[in-house]
Design brief:
single chain, elongated
Length: about 170
């Protein structure tokens, strides 16, 4: 029962994933995309276009995230992961973005990539929350797919009931 209480405590915190750089979990405002929102390339007199400054891209990613332009933010964060392959921050922010959208499998992968680059308790916290949510989803799916007379279905139903009852205030 103690383990269930811990799991439920984590569920209650799920909407409060940790963030870096003061990024907020603001609601989606405008999903539209303008040409000025696209990751940009800079041209030089000496040759072909090259990627824009990572600091600029990171700033644009943060702005897009804060205003709910998920697709734009995702593009910038993915660009950052290529420009700064050893940096965990872009992967962490990408995980937060995916979690905000309910793209749990993608969030889990992004958090794992962040952990590969830096062992950070906030990343581990968010990964754990995502895994709990994925686990509950798997249990719900199992309950619907198991035969009605199967003992595992009854056990799953009881576990879910206990988890969800404990999660409610």
């Amino acid at each position: 029962m103690f383990r269930i209480a811990l799991i439920v405590a984590g569920l209650a915190m799920l909407p409060g994933c940790a963030t870096l750089n003061g990024l907020s979990n603001s609601p989606m405002v405008d999903a539209g995309r303008s040409s000025s929102d696209q990751p940009s390339l800079t041209t030089t007199d000496s040759g072909p276009a090259k990627p824009a400054d990572p600091a600029f891209i990171e700033e644009r990613a943060q702005q897009a995230y804060e205003t709910g332009r998920w697709d734009v933010a995702e593009g910038y964060y993915l660009q950052l992961t290529r420009l700064k392959p050893k940096d965990a921050s872009a992967w962490f922010q990408l995980g937060n973005l995916y979690a905000e959208q309910g793209r749990l499998d993608s969030a889990e992968r992004a958090y794992r990539e962040a952990l590969r680059r830096r062992d950070d308790a906030r990343v581990l916290h968010n990964l754990g929350l995502i895994q709990v949510k994925l686990g509950i989803g798997a249990l719900r799916e199992a309950q619907t797919r198991l035969p009605p007379t199967d003992a595992a279905r009854r056990e799953t139903r009881e576990l879910l009931r206990t988890l969800l009852e404990t999660a409610l205030p």
